[in-house]
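Researcher: Let's do a round of design. I'm pasting the structure tokens now; please hold your answer until I've finished.
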């Protein structure tokens, strides 16, 4: 019971002595698998004329926490807001969770009927019928026990799911402009619990399979975008632009004839900022905890100021690593790891003229 100190936290240590200097917990009593997936990024920003040595921490739940890295103090206020209580017997959840007031979230958070897919009236009706069997609600709605009977609830739909939001691919910071970039994806999970066989376990409840929650006809349950690249001005704590990271399911048979724009792909996109460009990956279908029939094979360069795609190359396989860049003999290279269930892992190196 309690907040589970240091779990799902940023912890700063004195490198010489190992002593704790400060810590900040991003999720209290984490029932959501919202552990911090990537290392924080050290950034130097100027907020209201005041220079701050800060860090930016991406999260699975779609928040970007910006903290003074010397003290752990939030650069902008972080509010403890009430969240739903658990209905699981014996579970005592945290009554509040931290919500940054700036910058705004970069992902879907929570699920209500207003968030359900609505490309056509029929698809929306099917989505409404599907969610009747699940608990839905705002962010941090806790997992729930699978009920008994033909109309019983089958768990809680958790959005963002435990694979993000952002994940291990992290983000990128441009020190020249103060811009921060993060790739994220929207994947709804079913957070369910059930009573195990007492002959095999003395636990009252155990976690279910945490299946991906698909919507009507294999489409996502919620409105797009399903994967996105978001840019923030971290001197102001404001979103500058957001673009879908790929076409997504817009060519699905159920969407035929709708002439939809890019919907975004529910796989993690990694980003790296260079002096002039933002390079973006498309992850492969083999990425863990990805919905069926997703994934791309293009490697792209975006305009850092607008998010417009300036260049792309089809590598024929998804990129499952974060790109890196270096110079050799005056020429700049970008390297990315690729691979799939049916394609051997390798590195692809590209040269910039």
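Researcher: That's everything. Go ahead.
Model: Designed sequence:
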């Amino acid at each position: 019971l309690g907040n589970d100190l240091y779990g799902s936290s940023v912890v700063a240590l004195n490198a010489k002595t190992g002593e704790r200097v400060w810590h900040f917990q991003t999720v209290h009593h984490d029932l959501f698998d919202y552990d911090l997936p990537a290392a924080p990024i050290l950034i130097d920003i100027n907020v209201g004329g005041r220079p701050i040595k800060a860090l930016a921490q991406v999260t699975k739940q779609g928040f970007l926490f910006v903290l003074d890295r010397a003290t752990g103090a939030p650069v902008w206020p972080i509010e403890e807001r009430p969240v739903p209580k658990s209905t699981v017997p014996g579970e005592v959840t945290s009554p509040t969770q931290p919500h940054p007031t700036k910058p705004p979230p970069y992902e879907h958070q929570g699920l209500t009927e207003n968030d359900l897919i609505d490309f056509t009236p029929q698809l929306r009706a099917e989505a409404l019928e599907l969610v009747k069997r699940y608990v839905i609600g705002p962010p941090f709605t806790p997992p729930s026990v699978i009920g008994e009977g033909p109309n019983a609830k089958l768990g809680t739909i958790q959005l963002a799911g435990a694979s993000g939001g952002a994940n291990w691919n992290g983000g990128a910071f441009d020190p020249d402009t103060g811009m921060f970039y993060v790739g994220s994806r929207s994947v709804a999970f079913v957070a369910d619990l059930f009573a195990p066989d007492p002959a095999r376990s003395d636990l009252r409840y155990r976690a279910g399979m945490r299946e991906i929650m698909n919507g009507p006809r294999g489409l996502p349950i919620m409105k797009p975008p399903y994967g996105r690249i978001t840019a923030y001005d971290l001197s102001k704590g404001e979103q500058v632009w957001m673009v879908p990271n790929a076409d997504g399911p817009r060519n699905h048979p159920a969407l035929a004839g709708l002439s939809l724009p890019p919907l975004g792909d529910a796989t993690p996109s990694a980003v790296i900022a260079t002096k002039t460009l933002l390079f973006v990956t498309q992850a492969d279908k083999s990425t863990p905890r990805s919905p069926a029939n997703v994934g791309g094979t293009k490697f792209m360069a975006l305009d850092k100021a607008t998010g417009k795609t300036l260049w792309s190359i089809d590598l024929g396989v998804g990129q499952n690593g974060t790109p890196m860049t270096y110079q050799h003999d005056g020429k700049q290279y970008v390297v990315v790891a690729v691979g799939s269930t049916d394609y051997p892992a390798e590195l692809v190196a590209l040269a910039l003229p």
